[in-house]
Recover the amino acids of this structure.
């Protein structure tokens, strides 16, 4: 019985899928036939044709994968450490509500600080970390991403740990539950959806800060840096190839997040 | 256009000796909802017949799923009918909606949180294109009517639930409608606030002489307020009885303790079918 | 005694203590680095050194002090960021409006709007510069794009979040489409619109500074790059770090103030 509804292919859901696909194909055709260039006033040099961009991606496979690895490692590493750190800060703020909440308002202020201000500082700070330029650059970049992700997670974790359903805390009290039990049985499960709210912000943000911190890094590697280097060398087609790759990373990571959210939050709401 | 500032005409005592005209006629009304899975349509209302006179206070009473709200929404043209006729002073629901002849009060106050109380009450008159001077005059009168004179400049979130519902009533009456449609307006309020609003609603009704259709699932509330209680039963939604409430008016709160009142409550309760 | 306790436990006091704590950590770090590095001002100077560099009268490039350079270039960057922000906000609101008015357009554009959120737009800054070939235009365009989609998605969410009863009330009053937008949908979407603005205001500034670093000319980012390459005093870099942090935070609170000015009921909500 339930399956029937899924399979029913009515006009509404058909257009929901078809319209954007048609639009996308139309855009690609405009681009390939250079009509888009006339609209934007660009030439095929700065805005190469999609076919050429794809060819470059296939031709430079190994190099591109090398750069993707560097960027993804920074983004995922920073995301991981930042989220854990942020969650811990959320827990600390919950345990010490008065001082913690004030600290979180500082954290939210820090999240408005441009990444560009943070990235060069950390580059300088981590100069002594390792003798290998690549390793210390990685370290600096990961810290930048960590900082960006910490703010989003700490604020949302604090909300998740404290915005409990009415009476649920009273219920716990009526069981004479310890603070620890309240955390394990109530606060932490309650915060799971909020973790995903934070991740929806910090997954794209982690990639952006990874790309931008690559601009300032000592060692030349990473998708973001390649975009910039290739433009400096006027190799626009290669730069575009890296942009396409950067977009793909963004979409795939967000897709993974949505899939994880769907699996973990099943049955909630 | 209705003259909304002629308060003498609007608030004059009704001569009780005059016969009341029939205002709303509902004949063989049926409303079906299409089934989401493409199965048989769900019958929300089946073959409803009802006549309502001008100035009557009618309650539509029943458990959930009996179609009482659907009936109100169909009269308000918020819901399509499947068959049958509804005529309000010879007009269809669509026509009376377009002529802005009825005011509606929902269960939740749906006030515009960015507007002050005064400007909330003012809103429907803005849609009617009333001159500003008339609007201001009428808003003041309406706030006086619902007893919120001092709260005009407050914002909805600063008011209690009962006060919000008063603003809601004032807003519904702002366009000087012929009919007031109320969909479980007090069911979210506490008992004390509710009793106060019952008294106030009856006072407003007697002063303005409107026809009121009042949807509720509370038997006592229906009996206390109404001239007639229309009892609806579910599966399918239908009218199972119409009970005349011949209690004298005005009705003080103490009336709820009288034997006559309780006898009518029992009579209404016994007229449900298949619950 | 109670008075003192009250002041000590107030919200501002908590924030103040935190700020003091952060300053302390910074100063401790600076002291450690002072003892271990050859040129500590490149890594972490003392705060008073940065402050001193703001008020010094020493000319850095013959005509301007370090702070004058930062301010004049800051003005250029902020102006471009501001123009881009206003254009982006306007376009974002308009797009949300059009999407809400025409269902096919919503269906076409919604997936793409969602996709933009996942794409690192800032990474595309160099290519925008390559296409427009003009640093000022690219600043404005990147700031506009970054402003545009949070505003569009949030405003659209605002339109969609209006309760069914409010729509029915307008319907019962036979309100026209124009009236429904003017009296109901636009006012109730305003808080969402401002959520979009609060997200994008700091982003627009980040974007404008980043675009500066891509090319010479003028702007905060340009002098920041020069300073990092030691073409001029390193304190310009530190001043920019603090200035951009302050502007980023202020831009957020500017949006909060603007919202309270436009929607007075919000002001009363927060006690």
């Amino acid at each position: 019985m339930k399956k029937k509804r899924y399979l029913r292919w009515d006009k509404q859901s058909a257009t929901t899928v078809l319209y954007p696909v048609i639009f996308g194909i139309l855009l690609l055709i405009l681009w390939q036939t250079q009509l888009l260039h006339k609209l934007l006033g660009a030439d095929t040099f700065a805005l190469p044709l999609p076919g050429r961009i794809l060819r470059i991606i296939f031709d430079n496979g190994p190099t591109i994968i090398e750069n993707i690895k560097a960027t993804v490692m920074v983004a995922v590493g920073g995301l991981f450490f930042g989220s854990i750190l942020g969650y811990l800060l959320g827990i600390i703020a919950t345990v010490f509500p008065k001082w913690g909440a004030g600290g979180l308002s500082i954290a939210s202020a820090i999240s408005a600080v441009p990444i560009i201000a943070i990235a060069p500082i950390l580059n300088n700070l981590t100069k002594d970390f390792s003798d290998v330029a690549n390793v210390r650059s990685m370290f600096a970049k990961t810290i930048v991403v960590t900082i960006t992700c910490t703010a989003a997670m700490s604020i949302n974790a604090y909300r998740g740990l404290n915005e409990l359903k009415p009476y649920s805390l009273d219920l716990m009290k009526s069981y004479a539950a310890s603070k620890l039990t309240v955390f394990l049985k109530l606060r932490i499960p309650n915060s799971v959806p909020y973790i995903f709210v934070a991740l929806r912000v910090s997954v794209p943000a982690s990639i952006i800060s990874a790309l931008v911190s690559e601009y300032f890094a000592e060692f030349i590697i990473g998708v973001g840096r390649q975009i910039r280097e290739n433009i400096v060398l006027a190799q626009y087609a290669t730069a575009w190839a890296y942009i396409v790759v950067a977009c793909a990373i963004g979409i795939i990571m967000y897709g993974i997040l949505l899939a994880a959210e769907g699996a973990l939050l099943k049955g909630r709401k | 256009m209705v003259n909304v500032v002629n308060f003498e005409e609007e608030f004059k005592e009704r001569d009780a000796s005059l016969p009341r005209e029939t205002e709303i006629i509902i004949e063989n009304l049926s409303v079906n909802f299409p089934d989401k899975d493409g199965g048989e349509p769900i019958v929300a209302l089946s073959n409803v017949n009802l006549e309502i006179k001008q100035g009557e206070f009618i309650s539509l009473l029943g458990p959930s799923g009996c179609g009482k709200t659907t009936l109100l929404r169909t009269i308000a043209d918020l819901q399509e009918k499947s068959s049958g006729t509804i005529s309000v002073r010879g007009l269809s629901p669509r026509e009376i909606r377009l002529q802005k002849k009825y005011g509606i009060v929902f269960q939740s106050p749906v006030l515009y949180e960015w507007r002050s109380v005064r400007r909330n009450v003012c809103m429907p008159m803005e849609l009617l294109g009333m001159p500003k001077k008339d609007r201001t005059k009428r808003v003041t009168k309406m706030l006086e009517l619902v007893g919120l004179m001092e709260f005009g400049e407050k914002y909805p979130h600063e008011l209690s639930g009962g006060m919000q519902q008063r603003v809601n009533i004032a807003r519904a009456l702002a366009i000087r409608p012929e009919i007031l449609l109320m969909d479980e307006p007090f069911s979210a309020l506490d008992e004390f606030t509710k009793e106060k609003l019952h008294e106030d609603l009856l006072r407003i009704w007697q002063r303005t002489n409107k026809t009121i259709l009042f949807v509720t699932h509370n038997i006592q509330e229906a009996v206390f307020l109404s001239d007639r209680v229309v009892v609806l039963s579910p599966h399918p939604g239908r009218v199972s009885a119409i009970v005349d409430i011949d209690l004298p008016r005005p009705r003080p709160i103490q009336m709820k303790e009288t034997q006559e009142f309780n006898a009518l409550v029992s009579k209404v309760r016994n007229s449900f079918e298949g619950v | 005694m109670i008075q003192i306790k009250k002041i000590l436990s107030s919200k501002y006091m908590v924030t103040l203590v935190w700020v003091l704590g952060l300053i302390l950590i910074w100063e401790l770090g600076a002291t450690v680095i002072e003892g271990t590095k050859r040129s500590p001002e490149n890594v972490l100077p003392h705060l008073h050194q940065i402050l001193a560099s703001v008020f010094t009268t020493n000319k850095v490039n013959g005509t301007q002090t370090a702070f004058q350079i930062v301010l004049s270039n800051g003005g250029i960057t902020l102006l471009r960021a501001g123009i881009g922000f206003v254009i982006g906000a306007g376009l974002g609101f308009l797009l949300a409006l059009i999407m809400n008015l025409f269902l096919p357009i919503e269906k076409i554009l919604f997936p793409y709007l969602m996709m933009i959120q996942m794409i690192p737009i800032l990474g595309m800054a160099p290519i925008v510069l390559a296409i427009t070939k003009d640093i000022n235009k690219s600043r404005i365009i990147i700031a506009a794009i970054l402003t545009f989609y949070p505003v569009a998605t949030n405003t659209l969410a605002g339109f969609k979040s209006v309760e069914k009863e409010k729509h029915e009330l307008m319907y019962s009053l036979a309100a026209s489409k124009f009236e429904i937008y003017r009296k109901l949908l636009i006012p109730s979407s305003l808080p969402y619109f401002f959520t979009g603005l609060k997200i994008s205001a700091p982003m627009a500034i980040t974007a404008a500074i980043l675009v500066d670093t891509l090319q010479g000319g003028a702007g905060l980012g340009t002098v920041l790059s020069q300073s990092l390459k030691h073409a001029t005093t390193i304190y310009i870099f530190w001043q920019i770090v603090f200035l951009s942090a302050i502007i980023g935070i202020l831009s957020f609170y500017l949006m909060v103030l603007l919202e309270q000015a436009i929607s007075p009921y919000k002001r009363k909500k927060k006690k």
About this structure: The first helix of chain A runs from residue 2 to 7. Residues 13 and 19 of chain A are 10 Å apart (CA to CA). Confidence is low (pLDDT under 50) at residues 1-7 of chain A. The radius of gyration of chain A is 23 Å.
